[in-house]
From TrEMBL:
Name of the protein in its database record: TrpR like protein, YerC/YecD
Cross-referenced Pfam families: Trp_repressor
Lineage: Bacteria, Candidatus Shapironibacteriota
InterPro entries: Trp_repress, Trp_repressor/repl_initiator, TrpR-like_sf
GO terms of molecular function: DNA-binding transcription factor activity; sequence-specific DNA binding
Domain of life the protein comes from: Bacteria
Species this protein is from: Candidatus Shapirobacteria bacterium CG_4_9_14_0_2_um_filter_39_11
Amino acid sequence: MQISKKRLNQNLKNQIYKLLYQVITDIQNPNEARVLLESFLSKNELEVIARRLGIAYFLDKGKSYTNIKDNLAVSSTTVAAVAKDMKTKKGFKVALGKIRAEEWADKWTKRIGKVFKKK
């Protein structure tokens, strides 16, 4: 999809962005997120977003550019661009914080589960 060169009324633009942000905020689970994203984004758009998040995730885990480039089939330039964006764009910090919190919760749920299974 291409964006029209015609300017959108700023008030209308603000309204539809607010709708978008609210819909994203109201997502209840990963399946709802998948359905929403697959409905509104092309396969390529979704792939680009997923790979960028994957790059950020693996950079956060300390993986090398080469490892990321080879495993996610992206260029070094793309990895470098995401690394730069991670320093300047707050969304990466938010996303990675949510991922870390989820991983921490999963880890402790398993540990606690093992303790109670022993009894």
